[in-house]
Amino acid sequence: MTLAVTAAVTAVMGLAMSAAAKSQDQILPMLVISVMLSIVFGGGMIPVTGRVVLDQLSWAMPARWGFAASASTTDLRTIAPLLQTKETLWSRHRQVVDLVWWL
Fold first, then answer.
1. Which of 20, 22, 61, 71 lies in the 20 to 30 Å Cα band around 48?
2. CA atoms in the 13 A half-sphere facing the CB of 93
3. Reported pTM
4. What would the pLDDT profile of 83-99 be if each residue is shown by its tens digit?
5. pLDDT of residue 86
6. pLDDT in tens, 14-69
7. d(Cα 75, Cα 90) in Å, to the nearest integer?
8. Rounded to whole angstroms, what are the CA distances from 66 to 41, 59, 73, 81, 89?
9. Where exactly are the structural domains of the chain?
């Protein structure tokens, strides 16, 4: 369910970028920038928790919410114990799961 919602939101964002482009040549740079922003602000490769600017900007990215919902659903901290992060959205507490599902 979390991946389906993330894919739907990302498809809507792609359609919005496509509608904003005035020519075909403008789509590729927009695509590259959106993919790079999703990688940086998703929280999987680069920790964004505790970094003031990255943490605030990452709240607007659907990649962060989708990855956090999948990480809490699959209990990523148990699956990958070598991953040292203090990401609160990855925990399996009921309040966090409700918050991610509500958003």
1. 20
2. 8
3. 0.63
4. 666 666 666 665 555 55
5. 66
6. 899 889 989 888 888 998 988 888 888 777 777 777 777 877 787 778 888 887 77
7. 7
8. 11, 11, 11, 20, 11
9. 2-102
Contact (CB, 8 A) for 103 and 66: no
Residue 27 pLDDT: 87
CB 48 within 8 Å of CB 55: yes
- Residue 34 has which token pair? 């959106």
What DSSP string describes the chain?
-HHHHHHHHHHHHHHHHHHH-SSGGGHHHHHHHHHHHHHHHTSSSS--TT-HHHHHHHTT-HHHHHHHHHHHHHTHHHH-TT-----GGGS--HHHHHHHHH-
Amino acid (1-letter code) at residue 11: A
pLDDT at 12: 92
- Side-chain half-sphere exposure of 60, counting CA atoms within 13 A: 7
